[in-house]
Write a structure and sequence with these properties.
Blueprint (H helix, E strand, L loop, with lengths): L29 H9 L4 H9 L3 H13 L1
Helix pairs in contact: 1-3
């Protein structure tokens, strides 16, 4: 992560806030689909998908996993 002058910047703290966007309500089955994807996975996987990445990226991952 190069900043101005080519100097490296410190990485972000690793925790991302829950990001709300206008399209969060566009998929009323999101929670159910997330549960299907995370059945049998360790609990931190669901927590990571919900709280450490953006909602849009989470939806993309869930869509991909359900398509395979």
């Amino acid at each position: 992560m190069a900043g101005e002058g080519g100097r490296l910047q410190k990485p972000m703290s690793g925790k991302y806030p829950d990001i709300k966007s206008d399209d969060d309500d566009s998929d009323p089955n999101f929670d159910r689909r997330l549960d299907l994807v995370t059945i049998g996975a360790r609990p931190y996987i669901k927590d990571h998908l919900l709280h450490r990445i953006s909602r849009e990226n989470c939806k993309t991952i869930v869509d991909y996993m359900l398509a395979t």
